[in-house]
């Protein structure tokens, strides 16, 4: 079963709110990823966790804060976002983050910042 | 110059047609190659990995030309359900980061 789940599916928040996005996989994957995708653009990598440690941060603003509580879970904490942060946020996972790895994507959270 | 380049399309084809997409990449150290499919407002889904020897999965054939640094995807006998955006994806040696092309939009009409 190649399934990555994400909650919530949709989220509307104000610029002063704090919210969290959640991602879960039970495939035994040890690498997990957050991507941001704007309309008609490809996904852009934000963060990579490998064996529960942050291995890549693509210079993402600090208003986005990732967390990997265990090997199956990945969170993205949101605070003081801007309207331009409205996008589809995709979580992905892969076996170990190696060369031949396949990344499997969750259905995404569609975020609107008012 | 973008690291992975694709013709954005759209490619409009009738059902049953054969259609081919190309993608070029600029980093000669790139090691892993993939085609993903993305339906409107959905997540990308792996269509196939691409190997130097070429590979086929049903109606879909992918080829890799390392010398010319391009990847191709051929779809035979197009179905209405093939309408989607096809993303060319590359991974470079030693990195966990996937580099996505902007995608090629395919519209298959009855």
For the structure shown, list the relevant keywords.
heterodimer; A: 114 residues; mainly beta; 4-stranded antiparallel β-sheet; 56% strand; globular; B: 110 residues; 6-stranded mixed β-sheet; 5-stranded antiparallel β-sheet; 0% helix
How would you characterize the overall build of this protein?
The complex is a heterodimer of chains A (114) and B (110). Helix content of chain A is 0%, strand content 56%. Chain A is mostly beta strands and 114 residues long. The model of chain A has no long low-confidence stretch (mean pLDDT 93). Chain B has strands spanning 4-6, 11-14, 19-25, 30-38, 44-50, 55-57, 60-65, 70-75, 84-92, 98-100, 104-109. Chain B is globular, with a radius of gyration of 13 Å. The mean pLDDT of chain B is 93. The interface between A and B is medium-sized, with 26 and 20 residues.
Distance from first to last alpha carbon of chain A: 36 Å
Tell me, briefly, the overall form of chain B: globular
Task: Report the radius of gyration of chain B as a whole number of Å.
Answer: 13 Å
Structural class of chain A: mainly beta
**Main sheet record of chain A:** 7 strands, mixed
Structural class of chain B: mainly beta
Strand content of chain A: over 45%
Using the CA coordinates, give the radius of gyration of chain A: 13 Å
Number of strands of chain B: 11
Annotation field: number of helices of chain B? 0
The greatest interface here is:
A-B, 26 and 20 residues
Could you give the count of β-strands of chain A?
11
Oligomer: heterodimer
- The helix fraction of chain A, in percent, is under 10%
Mean pLDDT of chain B: 93
Biggest sheet overview of chain B: 6 strands, mixed
Contiguous low-pLDDT stretches of chain B (5 residues minimum) are none
Please indicate the percent range of residues of chain B in DSSP E strands (runs of 2 or more): over 45%
**H/E element sequence of chain A:** EEEEEEEEEEE
Order of helices and strands of chain B: EEEEEEEEEEE
């Amino acid at each position: 079963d190649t399934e990555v789940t994400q909650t919530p599916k949709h989220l509307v928040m104000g610029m002063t709110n704090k919210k969290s996005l959640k991602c879960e996989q039970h495939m035994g994957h040890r690498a997990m990823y957050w991507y941001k995708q704007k309309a008609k653009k490809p996904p852009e990598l934000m963060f990579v966790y490998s064996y529960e440690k942050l291995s890549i941060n693509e210079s993402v603003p600090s208003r986005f804060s990732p967390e990997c509580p265990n090997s199956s879970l990945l969170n993205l904490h949101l605070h003081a976002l801007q309207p331009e942060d409205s996008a589809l946020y995709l979580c992905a996972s892969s076996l170990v983050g190696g060369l031949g790895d396949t990344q499997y994507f969750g259905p995404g959270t569609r975020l609107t910042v008012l | 110059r973008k690291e992975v380049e694709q013709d954005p399309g759209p490619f409009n084809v009738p059902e049953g047609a054969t259609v081919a997409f190309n993608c070029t990449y600029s980093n000669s150290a790139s090691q892993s190659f993939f085609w993903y499919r993305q339906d409107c407002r959905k997540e990308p889904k792996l269509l196939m990995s691409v190997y130097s020897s070429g590979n086929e999965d049903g109606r879909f054939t992918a080829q890799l030309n390392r010398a010319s640094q391009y990847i191709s995807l051929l779809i035979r006998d197009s179905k209405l359900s093939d309408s989607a955006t096809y993303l060319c994806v590359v991974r470079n040696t030693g990195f966990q980061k996937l580099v996505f092309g902007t995608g090629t939009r395919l519209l298959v009409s009855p």
